[in-house]
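Sync notes, pocket subgroup
Present: LS, DG
LS reminded everyone that the earlier model was apo-only. Rerun requested with adenosine-3',5'-cyclic-monophosphate included. Inputs:
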Amino acid sequence: MDPCDERRYIRKRKQVAYERTEPTELIRLLGLPASVTLPDIENYTAKVLLAFGKDDYQSDAFWMACEKLHFECNLARNKDAVIEAFQTKNHDIVVIDYRNPKFIDGEGICKALRNLKSTQFTVIVAVVKRSAIEKEDSNIEPMLNMGFNRVLMETSCLSQCINELLQLYKSDVEPRVQLATAQAVYLALDKSSDVVHITDHNLNLQYLNKTSERFLGYNIKEVKDKPLLDANSVDNKELMVQQLQRGREWEGLISWKRKSGEPLLLSGRVIPAAIPGRSPSHYIFIHESPYMSHDKRLSTSAHLSKNPDLPKTQNNRKGSLDMKSISSDGLRRQSIAKLHNLSIEAPITKVISLITSVQESASPEVIQTLDKVVDILRTTELYSPQLKDDKGKTGDPITSDLMGALLSSGSTVTPITRRSSSDSGSVPRIGLSRTTYKTHNISLQMKELLDTSLLWDFDIFQLEDISGKRPLVYLGMNLMSHFDVSSSLGIEEMILYNWLTIIELNYNAKNSYHTSTHAADVMQATAGFLERERLKQILDPLDEAICLIAAAAHDVDHPGKSSAFLSNSNHELAILYNDLCVLESHHAALAFKLTMSDDRVNIFKSLERDVYKAVRQSVIDMILATEMTRHFEHLAKFVNVFSIKKDDDSPDGGRSSPDTLNWTAPENIALIKRMLIKCADVSNPTRPVQMCVEWAIRIAEEYFNQTDEEKANNLPVVMPLFDRATCSIPKSQIGFMDFIINDMFEAWEEIIGFPQLVVNMKCNYEYWKQLDEMGIQKIQDVILMQHRTPM
Ligand SMILES: Nc1ncnc2c1ncn2[C@@H]1O[C@@H]2COP(=O)(O)O[C@H]2[C@H]1O
């Protein structure tokens, strides 16, 4: 459709349900180049006021354009209404209909608005008739002088109105917002009780605040562009300048001369201001207010006791002293001093001290980079995942959706009714067996299949079929027996069988992905990893048992919805766990609740108290490690500790571990077990392609169901792009592998030596890329292609 032919569409808009258009989609709809970025409407919503005496295509087009851009829009019919609306909302843009004074007095409105002080930062636009502008002798200057910023020719074209508003936003509103912010900053500086001076890079004064004016007696006109400091102002001025030029802050005493000639010594700091990568262009001098820092000055300066004027100055200002903040500040300083006196030092403090000492002799660029490093190290969120800006902004939206949902636990509260979970209720009853578990009860087909249970291409879906959807018990018994778990725990095999049965019964068969087949698959991957020589050397039989148990139970009673969904729907589990690690906490708690519910399922009953404690702690730790919001934290810790040095001369073909690393230290074993279960949990993209595809379909189906339910119940949609009508399965898989899988499996493979993982992973990645290039998106089409793909 010709975008300018949208007039009919606009006229009909009141009957059409309005659909929110995402900015990126809008760019596509409008056919704008991908490089165009829409205003940061997440953070700032522009406010537009339409001054139109009556509705017509023009007011409709602007109204619609505002909706598309997510700008707030108001309409006023006459001068009084415009002034009233403006005084309430202080709009960024006012569009005035200037076509016919019969309907609305455009000139009067513009003048009245400009008479208000608050329109200083407002863009006023006049919409004029085509003929008014197309005339050869047309002259808009009088209108500009009247107070309009822009004169637009009438148009019924929606995209033209959108473009106009966008341009106004970019060229006028944004800079004005920034200007207003800058004014606010100046105001803050003027109101600050600190003495503030700003100089250029030659230390010539550019700005001083009101407190400085009061204390030193100069106003800016008298001293602008004059040197701020004289030779005696600072003890070692050269050193200070050197440090500032290198981009480093300086702290110390500066001796000032008041206009009246009296000296004034102030302690403070000087901060270089620079565009990143450049040398400083300005220096900011901040001195604690002479009245606020009186005590400190007295104690730091011998000069001061000789200066009788200061206490007088302080007395003059006494009314403005904030005694509470002074005393609490004093207390804070005392406690910091106490802390410094204690003989404790956190490793991070040592690291920061080392970096700071390196900065002493570094170049300005290195100093700036190290400053950033120190800033990052000072946060408490060192391992919290943050999507890199470029990926977050320009990456595939499905990937952003998926990563947003996996890596954050955002929630909004709206009630729904689902009740489930045996967490707070009673444990389901099952037919517990007291007889001996007999392996010979299984069919020949099952036996043949289970003979391959340790192979990476083990067919879990065939097991799902032939076990009547009870793969966990069959495979579980096979693997537990292989690793002799009953001996490690000192129990009969029958208890293991009962335990696997009760755990399997508590997986929800109705889910499409999080069923006991997924648990069995994770257990199978776990066994595959435990079989690697490297891990055999590190983990003992009890560790192996812990890994298999954690894998079997890690998603028990998964509702097929994410933790965010549970939080958003006020689910009892979210309430119970305060929206924190909701699902994983539930899986771990329920696993133990079920285990402890009856002696016949209690696989831990023979363990000594302290061994049980350690086993319990480790199983919980592993299950909690499957929580995806901490994915990057776990991965970063693992890579930091186990980063492998490539050494081609080493006897094991280039694989060598850091010499000093104690692989079997408890904290390192814990890291390995966490990474093991994490990799097993999301190992599906490293399986043979047919299985990889089946898992992708199952997880997508589960996500789609969640989106359906969120929409049906009017809940926040956690992953809006996982909508069965529009989602691209290949794109979601490419994104998942790019962000979560590829790096983690490369690192894991390096440690455990399992090339098949990475080979499969790369093949599958290529497969999804091919499907994507072929334009395949929907589940049905992926299934069709799957049937064509050879095993
Ligand atoms: N193939 C996949 N594609 C997209 N997401 C996946 C895939 N496999 C696993 N996941 C997600 O990764 C999560 C790992 O923890 P959960 O099993 O709780 O839930 C899992 C899914 O949300």
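DG: The longest helix spans residues 158-191.
LS: The mean pLDDT is 81.
Action: DG to write up.
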